[in-house]
Amino acid sequence: SKELIDLRKKDIKQLDAELAASREAQFSLRIKHKTGQLNETNQLTLVRKKIAKIKTLMNELKIKDSK
C-alpha cells in the first residue's frame, strides 16, 4: 500500500516519531469512542494496524542493523 511505501522511506527516528503520533491519535480516538463522540469506529482499527506496521518496520530495521 501507499502508506507502507511511505513508511519504508523513513529512518528509525522518523518511525519513532510517527509511532508516538499514532499512539496519541489512538488514545484520543479511544476517549472519543468511550464518550460516544466517535462515529467512524473503523478509525480505531486503522490506527491500530498503522501502529503494527510501524513496529514491524522498526523491528526489520533493527534486525538489519544488527547483522
Q: What do you see in this structure?
A:
- The longest helix is centred in the last third of the chain and has 25 residues, at 42-66.
- The protein has three helices and no strands.
- The chain has helices spanning 2-8, 12-34, 42-66.
- It is an all-alpha fold.
- The two termini are 27 Å apart.
- It has one domain (1-66): Helix Hairpins, CATH 1.10.287.
Give short descriptive properties of this protein.
Helix Hairpins; 82% helix; 67 residues; mainly alpha
Layout of helices and strands:
Blueprint: H1 2-8, H2 12-34, H3 42-66
What can be said about this structure in brief?
The protein has 67 residues and is mostly helical. The protein is built from 3 helices and no strands.
What is the total tally of β strands? 0
Unreliable stretches (pLDDT < 50, length at least 5) are none
Number of structural domains:
1
Mean pLDDT over the full residue set: 94
Radius of gyration from CA coordinates? 14 Å
Per the principal axes of the C-alpha atoms, what is the gross shape?
Answer: elongated
Percent helix, as a range, is over 70%
Find the CATH topology: Helix Hairpins
Q: Compute the separation of the termini in Å.
A: 27 Å
Number of helices: 3
Q: Quote the beta fraction.
A: under 5%
> Major beta sheet, specifics?
none
Question: Can you tell me the CATH architecture?
Answer: Orthogonal Bundle
Give the helix/strand class: mainly alpha
**H/E topology pattern:** HHH
